[in-house]
Every structure is written in structure tokens, then in C-alpha cells.
Design brief:
It contains one helix and four strands; from the N terminus they run E-E-E-E-H. A hairpin with a 2-residue loop joins strand 2 and strand 3.
């Protein structure tokens, strides 16, 4: 699990769309403010398909940064 502190733009030469999975989202109050947590789960073909694969957390600052990225990349208003 990781609390994202900052997003850094990195251009890549090769890209691949990954297999679709499900993610669960929750939020909670912690020291320093609200935290949004996104948990992803393993594919159905894995030995433990319902086990959390990765968790990332966003605080207010990193959520605002991601929001600005999403607006720029997808034209959200």
C-alpha cells in the first residue's frame, strides 16, 4: 500500500492496455485529513482472485493533482 505524495509525468515509448479488473474505493479520516483509498483485486484466473492486489491512497493534495491531470487528459470540466 502506498500514499501517493506526488504525480510525476513520464513519457513512454511503449504502451499496452492491461486486462480489466475491479477496483473498490473507500475514504476515511486520518491524521492530516481525508484519505481516498483504491484497492484493486486480482484477475479471476489467479489462485486467490478475491485477494487485494494493490492499494493506493490519495490525500487532498494528490487528489487535486490527479483531478487536474484527468481534466487535462480527458477534457473533464
Amino acid at each position: 500500500m502506498a500514499l501517493i505524495e506526488n504525480f510525476v509525468r513520464q513519457d513512454k515509448e511503449r504502451f499496452k492496455v492491461h486486462e480489466a479488473i475491479e477496483a473498490h474505493v473507500c475514504s476515511f479520516e486520518a491524521e492530516g485529513g481525508r484519505v481516498l483509498q483504491i484497492d484493486t483485486y486480482g484477475r479471476g484466473t489467479r489462485a486467490n482472485p478475491h485477494k487485494i492486489s494493490q492499494s493506493v491512497q490519495l490525500d487532498r493534495r494528490s487528489a487535486q493533482q490527479l483531478y487536474e491531470i484527468l481534466k487535462a487528459e480527458f477534457g473533464f470540466k
